[in-house]
Design brief:
0% strand
Length: 129
Amino acid sequence: MLSGVKPLTAAEALEGVDVRAIVHDLLKRGSRPVKLQTLTVLWDRIYGKPKQELSVGGGLLHTHTRDPRLTALSTEALEELARKYDEVLAKHALRDVALDGQQNQIESNTAIEAVEVESEPCQVRMSQE
């Protein structure tokens, strides 16, 4: 019944409730199971729930999936398709990658060589005042 209640709505509903009085009444007049449940809820809220052991069982299933259009092809047809794919890849993609690599630089620019430049000495005049 309260699963769809938002925290703000719940807080508004609890504003007028004397929680201390209710807990006191539950512990004083409640049955033993009610007292235990009340103490358990309070304990969990104050100190946190105790750690629980967790064990996970099962295994890992590895499967291969294929395009449904390929499942109808025979092994020979799939091998032929793979060969054609490799040919196209070798012809276009691998060639372009090889040409663009740094190790295959077509043109090399020489470094700028240092040149000695002589300049006239700079004269600084200081005025005497």
